[in-house]
Amino acid sequence: MSEVSMSGPQSGRQRLSAWVHGYVQGVGFRWWTRSRALELGLVGYAANHVDGRVHVVAEGPRGDLDRLVVALRSGDTPGRVDLVVEDYTSARGDHATFVER
After folding, report:
1. pTM score of the predicted model
2. I want to staple 91 with a disulfide (CB 3.0 to 4.6 A). Which of 59, 75, 81, 86 is the partner?
């Protein structure tokens, strides 16, 4: 499954950068996000930010990234998500799995 090329991004893969606003720290949100990402076969990380947001970076097929964003907005997360601001770019191929930071 891990055929990530270090010389460039895999064809057809994209990178999601999503800033999650709300009550999302200290409630298991990063663990929950990691679980959803791994279920979708995505790689990347979820990290707390000093201002209370969680930064989610994930790479994989666009459809799976979109499914992760839908899950983040679903209302089924731990805590409370008020807003998800996402951006898509080309995959970098610099992650082997999905971790909590």
Report:
1. 0.88
2. 59
Catalytic choice (13, 15, 30, 53):
30
Q: Give which of 50, 56, 52 is closest to 33, Cα–Cα.
A: 56
- Out of 13, 15, 34, 48, the active site residue is 48
**What residues have CB less than 8 Å from 20, skipping those under 6 apart?**
29, 53, 54, 55, 56, 72, 81, 83, 84
Beta carbons within 8 Å of 62's beta carbon, 6+ residues apart: 14, 88
Question: What rounded mean pLDDT belongs to the chain?
Answer: 92
- DSSP assignment of 10-70 equals PTTEEEEEEEEEEE-SSSSHHHHHHHHHHHTT-EEEEEE-TTS-EEEEEEEEHHHHHHHHH
